[in-house]
Amino acid sequence: MTWDPFGTIANTLWIGGGQWAGKSTAARVLAHRCGITAYHYDYHDARGHDARRVAERAARGEPLTGRDPDELWVRRTPAEMAEDALAEFGRRFEWTLDDLRGLVSGRPILAEGWGLRPELVTPLLESPGRMLVMVPTEEFRRHQLRELPRAREFGLRVSDPERAQANRVDRDRLLAESAAQAAREHGVRVMWVDGTRDAEQVASEVADHFAPYLG
């Protein structure tokens, strides 16, 4: 039994899936439309969770900056990077649950992020309908990589930025495919996003999926 002092985790709805599928946008739209609270995994992971990672390195006597960027992004294969990410997701998920335990809301919490994996979330659910996995089609993923600056640009300083970006793109594809497969194995719906619908329409489909829990 997961510790849930205020019943927040039990009342949470979950969106996982691939990068650039519109998870954050859908959550923001539904927060305004339905009056629910959106929890953005990436925001917390880049701030409070990163501070925890730095504290862990300090406790182990390791460099506070972590591993060399070239080792992380240039010298490893995308498959190795994906395997490492999956292991990290499990550790970070406990920090996400800590964040959610600190929230109290009379309405559902909608937690979204690529680290919210079906294999981690479904053991907490009374029904797999409380989760949705959003994955971009390959064509739409390529569109996002062309159009979104944060998707097409590699922000870290490395010896070979082009290779690092190619490795990141392939890693993200592997993780998206893995998320879809894990969703099918755990009875969670996979929603493929192909770019033919605008943000409001995508959010409406997400709302329809979660309708039994939105009241």
Fold and architecture overview:
- This protein has 215 residues and is α/β, with parallel strands linked by helices.
- It has one domain: P-loop containing nucleotide triphosphate hydrolases (Rossmann fold, 3-Layer(aba) Sandwich), CATH 3.40.50.300.
- Helix 1 (23-34) crosses helix 10 and helix 5 (78-101) packs across helix 9.
- It has a 5-stranded parallel beta sheet.
- The chain has helices at residues 23-34, 41-45, 48-60, 69-73, 78-101, 118-121, 138-147, 149-152, 161-185, 199-214, and strands at 12-17, 37-40, 109-112, 131-136, 189-193.
Domains, number:
1
Q: Major sheet, described briefly? A: 5 strands, parallel
Q: Strand sequence of the main sheet, in spatial order?
A: 2-3-1-4-5
CATH topology: Rossmann fold
Q: Could you say which overall geometry the principal axes of the C-alpha atoms support?
A: globular
Count the strands?
A: 5
> How many alpha or pi helices?
10
Keywords for this entry:
10 helices, Rossmann fold, about 220 residues, 5-stranded parallel β-sheet, globular
